[in-house]
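Narrative of accomplishments. A recurring question from our advisory board has been how the design workflow behaves on a single, concrete structure rather than in aggregate. To address it, we present the structure tokens for one chain from the evaluation set, followed by the sequence designed for it. No filtering or post-editing was applied between the two.
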């Protein structure tokens, strides 16, 4: 009778350990998904601001059509991206195009003095700061999740329960270098 009780206790302990590991992996995965949703919200906020910025700049710098078209095309690509990987890639292109647009705006003193442009630029900067913070949070969550599925004993159960590694948000090469102003 005692060996049977010991056997049941061991089986229950193993089942509880497996459930604990599984629940931890699910929690880590959900944190990654939640962090991505925070990025997505801020990206949408920025996408909503862009048409106003483009229209304001267009009023002062209409002959900068190539730059305006690049921002519009990048925004269209960003809003049509579906998966996180597509959105990350489109966001990197859009960030570079926006940086170029704001650098072009620096060449127009009347535009830089426009109250609407100043307000839009401040709101855009605030949104960019929020996006940056959300990216950092997302990357931290991805790191914790990937560590959870790649370290023992999580790696055993991650394979069994089909937990796949996630990719963090990386800055594009264009976002790492200073934009060039056209004169």
């Amino acid at each position: 009778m005692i060996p049977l009780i010991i056997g049941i206790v061991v089986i229950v302990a193993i089942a509880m350990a497996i459930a604990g590991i599984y629940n931890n992996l699910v929690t880590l995965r959900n944190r990654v998904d939640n962090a991505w949703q925070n990025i997505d919200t801020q990206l949408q906020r920025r996408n909503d601001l862009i048409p106003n910025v483009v229209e304001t700049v267009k009023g002062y710098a209409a002959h900068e059509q190539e730059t305006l078209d690049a921002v519009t095309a990048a925004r269209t690509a960003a809003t049509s991206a579906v998966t996180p990987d597509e959105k990350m890639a489109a966001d990197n292109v859009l960030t570079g195009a926006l940086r170029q647009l704001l650098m072009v705006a620096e060449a127009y003193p009347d535009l830089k003095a426009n109250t609407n442009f100043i307000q839009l630029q401040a709101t855009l900067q605030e949104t960019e700061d929020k996006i940056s913070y959300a990216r950092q949070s997302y990357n931290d969550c991805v790191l914790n999740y990937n560590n959870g599925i790649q370290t023992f004993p999580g790696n055993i159960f991650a394979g069994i329960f089909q937990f796949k590694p996630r990719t963090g948000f990386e800055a594009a090469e264009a976002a790492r270098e200073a934009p060039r102003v056209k004169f």
